[in-house]
Amino acid sequence: MITIRRAPTLGSAHSDTPMLRCHFAFADYQDPAYTHDGRLRVLNLGTLKSAQAYHLGPEANVDILTWVSAGNLTSNVDGFEQEEIGTRGLHLFSTGTGYKGLEWRAGPDGAAFIQFWFMADVEGVSPAQETRASFPQLEDGGFRILASGFPEDDPEEESQITDGAPVALTARARLLHAAIPAAEGAAYSTTPGRDLYLLVVSGTVTINGNVLRCDDSAAITDQQDMVVIAQEKAELLLADVAAK
């Protein structure tokens, strides 16, 4: 089954500095019809002005993935090195046993970001941080794994990341990205007991006859195979999570 969520129906939350557009209940946006999708707890879209910061905390047992759609961010977390995240770069903070505060600050040109929260399946671990730059040379029109809680998705772990390997989640989940040329398609298959949540970052696509545009989304349940066709050049993010 595919359930479409249109961009104009997203909620708005006043959380810290920016106004967030929310796919699920968050901060002062509460809607019993949209609380989560499987183990995907949060999907927020935010925009920051030059040097503006966004703060979170305290949080525990959740993987917070921040993907920069425009501009650049700097992460500031006590006890961790600052990390610079450029356009289409990804920042992961696994809160583990608990962390009291996180900050992301926009660069001089501001920033736009998309943030996913996956509920952890491995508990009792220390907080951890990872960052990946974009790897446009690896984009082939299909879905590429950006983050994964499945060791088999990155069998050759290395201390120096040079190949666009996914960041490691404490959730048994995946975050994937696709840049699809116009008139071409991308397919993805999951396993039973999983939910898929597709977000259109830019462009126009069709899925099962439904037309989706920028910031529209599709929740896909009880269906293992998915094919997306780009009506125009499109960029997508896809979450693959346990249904329960």
Automatic annotation (TrEMBL):
Task: Domain (Quercetin 2,3-dioxygenase C-terminal cupin): give its ranges.
Answer: 163-241
UniProt keyword list: Dioxygenase, Oxidoreductase
- Gene3D superfamilies given in the database record: Jelly Rolls
Recorded hits in InterPro entries, A to Z, give: Pirin, Quercetinase_C, RmlC-like_jellyroll, RmlC_Cupin_sf
The reply on keyword DNA-binding is no
**A Pfam entry, by short name:** Pirin_C_2
Which GO MF terms are attached to this record?
dioxygenase activity
Give the PANTHER family listed for this entry.
QUERCETIN 2,3-DIOXYGENASE
Q: What's the protein name?
A: Putative quercetin 2,3-dioxygenase
What is the phylogenetic placement of the source species in the record? Bacteria, Pseudomonadati, Pseudomonadota, Alphaproteobacteria, Acetobacterales
